[in-house]
Write a structure and sequence with these properties.
Blueprint lengths: L1 H29 L4 H113 L24 E7 H4 L1 E7 L6 H15 L10 E8 L2 E9 L11 H7 L1 E6 L1 H9 L7
Parallel strand pairs: 2-3
Antiparallel strand pairs: 1-2, 3-4, 4-5
Length: about 280
Protein backbone atom coordinates (compact mmCIF):
# COMPACT_ATOMS: atom_id res chain seq x y z
CA UNK A 1 0.00 0.00 0.00
CA UNK A 2 2.82 2.35 0.82
CA UNK A 3 4.31 1.68 -2.57
CA UNK A 4 1.03 2.80 -4.27
CA UNK A 5 0.94 5.95 -2.23
CA UNK A 6 4.51 6.69 -3.10
CA UNK A 7 3.78 6.12 -6.82
CA UNK A 8 0.69 8.42 -6.77
CA UNK A 9 2.57 11.06 -4.78
CA UNK A 10 5.45 10.89 -7.19
CA UNK A 11 3.11 11.34 -10.20
CA UNK A 12 1.32 14.28 -8.59
CA UNK A 13 4.60 15.98 -7.69
CA UNK A 14 6.09 15.43 -11.11
CA UNK A 15 2.82 16.49 -12.85
CA UNK A 16 2.62 19.67 -10.78
CA UNK A 17 6.28 20.48 -11.47
CA UNK A 18 5.76 19.95 -15.21
CA UNK A 19 2.55 22.09 -15.16
CA UNK A 20 4.38 24.78 -13.21
CA UNK A 21 7.21 24.79 -15.73
CA UNK A 22 4.72 25.06 -18.66
CA UNK A 23 2.78 27.77 -16.87
CA UNK A 24 5.90 29.77 -16.21
CA UNK A 25 7.12 29.32 -19.80
CA UNK A 26 3.78 30.59 -21.26
CA UNK A 27 3.57 33.37 -18.75
CA UNK A 28 7.08 34.61 -19.57
CA UNK A 29 6.46 34.30 -23.30
CA UNK A 30 2.97 36.03 -23.25
CA UNK A 31 3.76 38.04 -20.19
CA UNK A 32 0.36 36.96 -18.84
CA UNK A 33 0.12 34.75 -15.79
CA UNK A 34 -3.10 32.77 -15.06
CA UNK A 35 -3.36 32.93 -11.30
CA UNK A 36 -6.13 30.34 -11.17
CA UNK A 37 -4.01 27.80 -12.98
CA UNK A 38 -1.08 28.59 -10.74
CA UNK A 39 -3.12 27.93 -7.67
CA UNK A 40 -4.38 24.66 -9.04
CA UNK A 41 -0.85 23.59 -9.83
CA UNK A 42 0.29 24.50 -6.35
CA UNK A 43 -2.61 22.55 -4.85
CA UNK A 44 -1.73 19.45 -6.93
CA UNK A 45 1.95 19.75 -5.92
CA UNK A 46 0.95 20.13 -2.27
CA UNK A 47 -1.30 17.09 -2.41
CA UNK A 48 1.43 14.99 -4.00
CA UNK A 49 4.02 16.26 -1.54
CA UNK A 50 1.78 15.48 1.45
CA UNK A 51 1.04 11.99 0.13
CA UNK A 52 4.77 11.41 -0.31
CA UNK A 53 5.41 12.48 3.29
CA UNK A 54 2.61 10.25 4.56
CA UNK A 55 3.90 7.21 2.66
CA UNK A 56 7.62 7.84 3.28
CA UNK A 57 7.91 7.61 7.12
CA UNK A 58 6.97 3.92 7.36
CA UNK A 59 9.07 2.93 4.45
CA UNK A 60 11.90 5.23 5.52
CA UNK A 61 11.94 3.79 8.98
CA UNK A 62 11.87 0.36 7.52
CA UNK A 63 14.72 1.32 5.23
CA UNK A 64 16.53 2.93 8.11
CA UNK A 65 16.07 -0.22 10.17
CA UNK A 66 17.34 -2.37 7.37
CA UNK A 67 20.26 -0.02 6.83
CA UNK A 68 20.98 -0.08 10.54
CA UNK A 69 20.87 -3.84 10.53
CA UNK A 70 23.11 -3.95 7.47
CA UNK A 71 25.57 -1.60 9.13
CA UNK A 72 25.43 -3.69 12.30
CA UNK A 73 26.00 -6.81 10.30
CA UNK A 74 28.85 -5.14 8.47
CA UNK A 75 30.31 -3.98 11.79
CA UNK A 76 29.94 -7.51 13.16
CA UNK A 77 31.23 -9.20 10.02
CA UNK A 78 34.04 -6.76 9.40
CA UNK A 79 36.29 -7.97 12.31
CA UNK A 80 35.45 -11.57 11.40
CA UNK A 81 36.56 -10.93 7.82
CA UNK A 82 39.71 -9.22 9.01
CA UNK A 83 40.39 -12.11 11.37
CA UNK A 84 39.80 -14.62 8.56
CA UNK A 85 42.03 -12.63 6.24
CA UNK A 86 44.73 -12.46 8.90
CA UNK A 87 44.33 -16.15 9.65
CA UNK A 88 44.52 -16.92 5.95
CA UNK A 89 47.61 -14.73 5.63
CA UNK A 90 49.15 -16.47 8.66
CA UNK A 91 48.29 -19.88 7.19
CA UNK A 92 49.73 -18.86 3.84
CA UNK A 93 52.87 -17.58 5.54
CA UNK A 94 53.13 -20.74 7.63
CA UNK A 95 52.70 -22.88 4.52
CA UNK A 96 55.26 -20.75 2.67
CA UNK A 97 57.70 -21.12 5.60
CA UNK A 98 57.09 -24.86 5.72
CA UNK A 99 57.58 -25.15 1.98
CA UNK A 100 60.73 -23.04 2.22
CA UNK A 101 61.99 -25.20 5.09
CA UNK A 102 61.17 -28.39 3.17
CA UNK A 103 62.92 -27.00 0.11
CA UNK A 104 65.94 -26.02 2.22
CA UNK A 105 66.05 -29.49 3.81
CA UNK A 106 65.67 -31.10 0.40
CA UNK A 107 68.51 -28.98 -1.00
CA UNK A 108 70.67 -29.75 2.05
CA UNK A 109 69.92 -33.46 1.69
CA UNK A 110 70.72 -33.30 -2.02
CA UNK A 111 74.00 -31.47 -1.31
CA UNK A 112 74.95 -34.12 1.29
CA UNK A 113 74.09 -36.92 -1.11
CA UNK A 114 76.13 -35.29 -3.87
CA UNK A 115 79.05 -34.79 -1.45
CA UNK A 116 78.85 -38.44 -0.34
CA UNK A 117 78.62 -39.53 -3.97
CA UNK A 118 81.64 -37.41 -4.89
CA UNK A 119 83.59 -38.76 -1.89
CA UNK A 120 82.64 -42.31 -2.83
CA UNK A 121 83.76 -41.71 -6.42
CA UNK A 122 87.09 -40.33 -5.16
CA UNK A 123 87.58 -43.34 -2.87
CA UNK A 124 86.69 -45.73 -5.70
CA UNK A 125 89.10 -43.89 -8.01
CA UNK A 126 91.88 -44.03 -5.39
CA UNK A 127 91.24 -47.76 -4.82
CA UNK A 128 91.28 -48.36 -8.56
CA UNK A 129 94.54 -46.44 -8.99
CA UNK A 130 96.03 -48.34 -6.05
CA UNK A 131 94.99 -51.68 -7.55
CA UNK A 132 96.33 -50.67 -10.96
CA UNK A 133 99.63 -49.57 -9.41
CA UNK A 134 99.89 -52.86 -7.49
CA UNK A 135 99.08 -54.85 -10.64
CA UNK A 136 101.63 -52.84 -12.63
CA UNK A 137 104.29 -53.35 -9.97
CA UNK A 138 103.53 -57.06 -9.89
CA UNK A 139 103.77 -57.23 -13.68
CA UNK A 140 107.07 -55.34 -13.70
CA UNK A 141 108.39 -57.64 -11.00
CA UNK A 142 107.36 -60.70 -12.99
CA UNK A 143 108.98 -59.29 -16.14
CA UNK A 144 112.17 -58.51 -14.22
CA UNK A 145 112.11 -62.01 -12.82
CA UNK A 146 111.74 -63.46 -16.31
CA UNK A 147 114.31 -61.17 -17.91
CA UNK A 148 116.81 -61.38 -15.08
CA UNK A 149 119.93 -63.01 -16.48
CA UNK A 150 121.09 -66.11 -14.82
CA UNK A 151 123.95 -65.48 -12.53
CA UNK A 152 127.08 -66.98 -13.89
CA UNK A 153 128.85 -68.82 -11.20
CA UNK A 154 132.33 -67.59 -10.94
CA UNK A 155 134.81 -70.37 -11.19
CA UNK A 156 137.31 -69.86 -8.50
CA UNK A 157 140.77 -69.65 -9.86
CA UNK A 158 143.11 -72.11 -8.33
CA UNK A 159 145.11 -70.47 -5.63
CA UNK A 160 148.50 -69.49 -6.91
CA UNK A 161 151.44 -71.06 -5.21
CA UNK A 162 153.77 -68.72 -3.48
CA UNK A 163 157.08 -68.21 -5.29
CA UNK A 164 159.78 -69.96 -3.30
CA UNK A 165 163.07 -68.09 -2.66
CA UNK A 166 164.31 -70.17 0.24
CA UNK A 167 167.32 -71.54 -1.72
CA UNK A 168 168.92 -68.08 -2.10
CA UNK A 169 171.94 -67.30 0.08
CA UNK A 170 170.89 -63.77 0.99
CA UNK A 171 169.61 -61.61 3.82
CA UNK A 172 166.39 -60.88 1.99
CA UNK A 173 164.76 -61.58 -1.39
CA UNK A 174 162.01 -59.24 -2.63
CA UNK A 175 159.67 -60.76 -5.24
CA UNK A 176 157.33 -58.93 -7.62
CA UNK A 177 154.96 -61.32 -9.40
CA UNK A 178 153.68 -59.68 -12.61
CA UNK A 179 153.01 -62.87 -14.57
CA UNK A 180 149.31 -62.02 -15.03
CA UNK A 181 150.20 -58.48 -16.12
CA UNK A 182 153.23 -58.81 -18.40
CA UNK A 183 154.55 -62.38 -17.98
CA UNK A 184 157.43 -61.16 -15.81
CA UNK A 185 158.86 -61.83 -12.36
CA UNK A 186 161.27 -59.44 -10.68
CA UNK A 187 163.74 -60.30 -7.88
CA UNK A 188 165.88 -58.08 -5.67
CA UNK A 189 168.44 -60.26 -3.88
CA UNK A 190 169.94 -58.39 -0.93
CA UNK A 191 173.30 -59.97 0.10
CA UNK A 192 175.27 -59.09 3.22
CA UNK A 193 178.09 -56.60 2.52
CA UNK A 194 180.60 -58.91 4.19
CA UNK A 195 180.26 -61.39 1.32
CA UNK A 196 182.70 -60.75 -1.61
CA UNK A 197 180.80 -59.35 -4.67
CA UNK A 198 181.97 -62.17 -6.95
CA UNK A 199 180.72 -64.79 -4.48
CA UNK A 200 177.40 -62.94 -4.09
CA UNK A 201 177.02 -63.11 -7.90
CA UNK A 202 177.94 -66.83 -8.22
CA UNK A 203 175.68 -67.86 -5.32
CA UNK A 204 172.72 -65.93 -6.81
CA UNK A 205 173.25 -67.30 -10.35
CA UNK A 206 173.49 -70.86 -8.98
CA UNK A 207 170.32 -70.41 -6.86
CA UNK A 208 168.46 -69.30 -9.99
CA UNK A 209 168.92 -72.81 -11.46
CA UNK A 210 166.37 -74.35 -9.02
CA UNK A 211 164.28 -71.16 -8.89
CA UNK A 212 163.55 -71.29 -12.64
CA UNK A 213 162.28 -74.89 -12.42
CA UNK A 214 159.53 -74.37 -9.81
CA UNK A 215 155.84 -74.51 -10.83
CA UNK A 216 155.09 -71.13 -9.22
CA UNK A 217 156.70 -69.17 -12.04
CA UNK A 218 155.22 -71.12 -14.92
CA UNK A 219 153.90 -68.57 -17.38
CA UNK A 220 156.74 -66.11 -16.79
CA UNK A 221 158.64 -65.41 -19.98
CA UNK A 222 161.32 -63.33 -18.24
CA UNK A 223 162.80 -63.08 -14.76
CA UNK A 224 164.68 -59.94 -13.77
CA UNK A 225 167.43 -60.37 -11.12
CA UNK A 226 169.15 -57.61 -9.13
CA UNK A 227 172.05 -58.53 -6.78
CA UNK A 228 172.45 -55.69 -4.28
CA UNK A 229 174.97 -55.17 -1.43
CA UNK A 230 174.22 -52.08 0.58
CA UNK A 231 173.71 -49.32 -1.96
CA UNK A 232 175.67 -51.03 -4.73
CA UNK A 233 173.99 -53.02 -7.46
CA UNK A 234 176.64 -55.66 -8.27
CA UNK A 235 174.82 -57.12 -11.28
CA UNK A 236 171.42 -56.84 -12.98
CA UNK A 237 170.42 -59.42 -15.56
CA UNK A 238 167.25 -60.78 -17.23
CA UNK A 239 166.70 -64.52 -17.73
CA UNK A 240 164.68 -65.67 -20.77
CA UNK A 241 162.93 -68.77 -19.48
CA UNK A 242 162.46 -70.29 -22.91
CA UNK A 243 166.24 -70.30 -23.39
CA UNK A 244 167.00 -71.92 -20.06
CA UNK A 245 167.93 -75.61 -20.50
CA UNK A 246 168.67 -77.56 -17.28
CA UNK A 247 171.69 -79.93 -17.52
CA UNK A 248 173.18 -81.67 -14.48
CA UNK A 249 176.55 -81.99 -16.24
CA UNK A 250 177.05 -78.23 -16.64
CA UNK A 251 177.64 -75.77 -13.78
CA UNK A 252 174.36 -74.20 -12.73
CA UNK A 253 175.60 -70.57 -12.90
CA UNK A 254 176.80 -71.14 -16.47
CA UNK A 255 173.39 -72.46 -17.63
CA UNK A 256 171.52 -69.53 -16.01
CA UNK A 257 173.81 -66.84 -17.42
CA UNK A 258 173.78 -68.51 -20.85
CA UNK A 259 170.03 -67.80 -21.00
CA UNK A 260 170.42 -64.24 -19.66
CA UNK A 261 171.12 -60.68 -20.84
CA UNK A 262 173.26 -58.51 -18.53
CA UNK A 263 172.19 -54.89 -18.12
CA UNK A 264 174.46 -53.81 -15.26
CA UNK A 265 177.67 -55.44 -13.87
CA UNK A 266 180.43 -54.17 -11.61
CA UNK A 267 184.06 -54.59 -12.91
CA UNK A 268 185.05 -56.89 -10.08
CA UNK A 269 182.14 -59.20 -10.82
CA UNK A 270 182.76 -59.09 -14.56
CA UNK A 271 186.47 -59.96 -14.12
CA UNK A 272 185.54 -62.95 -11.98
CA UNK A 273 183.01 -64.14 -14.57
CA UNK A 274 185.60 -63.95 -17.35
CA UNK A 275 188.17 -65.75 -15.26
CA UNK A 276 185.63 -68.48 -14.39
CA UNK A 277 184.34 -68.73 -17.99
CA UNK A 278 180.82 -67.75 -16.94
CA UNK A 279 178.94 -66.33 -19.97
CA UNK A 280 178.13 -62.60 -19.77
CA UNK A 281 175.79 -61.57 -22.58
CA UNK A 282 175.33 -57.82 -22.81
Amino acid sequence: MSDLFIAIATLLVLGSIIAFVIFMYKGIKTKKFNKSLLRKTAIVFSIGFVMGIIAAPGDGLENDSEATKAVGKEIVHKPEKEVKVKEKQADDKKKADENKKKQSLAEEKKAKEEKLKEQKQKEEKADKEKQEAAAKAKKVKELEKKEKPKEVKKVAKPKKKKIDTSNFKAKKVEVTDAIDLNDHVSLIVRVDESVPPALAFVNTASSMYDFLQQDSIKGAKTVGVNVVQGKIKQIMFTVHTDQFKPNPNVPMADLVMEASEVDVIQPEVEDYAKMSNIPINK
